[in-house]
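Extended Data, panel c. Modelled sequence:
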Amino acid sequence: SSFHWACKTSKEINIMAKSLIGVAVVFAMTVLVSAGKTGYLADLQLKQRVETYRDSVTPVKALRYTVSLDDPPATRWHHVSPLFAEKAKAITAYFNEFLPPAVVPVLERIAADLRSFFPADYAAEMEANARDLNISVGEIVLVNLIYEVERIGNNCSASNTTGPCPPPKSDGPGLCTSIVAEDAAGKIVHGRNLDWSIPNALRDMMVDVEYTKDGVVKFVASQPVGFAGVLHGTVPHGFSYSMDAREKGGSLILNGLEAALIRGARTPTQHARMALESASSFADGVAALAEGPLVNPAYFIVGGVQSGEGAVISRGRDRAVDVWKLSEQTSDTKYFLLQTNYDHWEAPPTYDNRRDPGIQHMKAVGQTNVDSKSVFGVLTQWPTFNHHTDFTGIISADAEAAEYQTYIWP
């Protein structure tokens, strides 16, 4: 993407100013500009470029399709996937550039026996999508394991999805922010940013999908075409879900990935789709997302339709290690939960503290002004919105399916 820049390390302020005025100026700049920030957060030129970009473009609404769960898995995407075959050529080019060579044998073994590694329905969808997109089964496996694979064999600064590195290597986040907020009348609003830095051609494969069952919308979800999991989604008038990366539990290694899949562990996005398919209420959604083995840790952010129905589930590979509930908040931020990529009970790192600015922006909105527009506004404020932001979604369950929308930043 043309909208990704290398960040610059902030210059150390000269505190040995020769005059009182100089000292005062330096002190003021330190308070107003740095405020304890390091890395990309203190780069005012980067901030200005991000805000100029944001103000100069209009995000594109993701294309919307209907997929019937009543159709056989091998055909349910057949009216959609061939439309993206030309764009899918970018998949091969992208992975040729970023794929660690050691991953190839693992992908070949998984591709040769999909049903041993993935739920049968999803495996059948993947095989059919590979044909319709005119790519190999190995490449479709790679699409479905893109988050896990990009963490293998790459150093932190080279990967799009390992998350922030300590300075000076980091140019910023490459992760996500999710917000669940309650207005003064008890209505729940859910929004999220996905910060990934994926190439434009792959970004253009992102779609919003209405999954139907017996002719009725069962849930709405967002995913790249060919990807069996879902990045965020909503059961209308039930619950909403988004996922943020959680860097806990040790690094994923090749044999760990293969072994976890063969034991029945799911990628977080496939686990989330299964929850959307099976649960219909906030309580059931939280329970489904909190249970079941995962290939890698994640945060599941959940919104409901009643006052107090909001939660952040901090998932380890085997279980939920914490469930942070909106209904239990008592501070001046009690009407919202804001989750980035760090456990809420720990301080975020100074080189990627998107949490505190986001909280301040939400407090400035105030509970009486919470709605989809104001939450979207917070999601497009620096540094919640940054040089890695690819998608912004408004995905509230307390809304009609037609109001669900993912916006793609060009």
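The longest helix spans residues 20-34. This feature is highlighted in the accompanying rendering.
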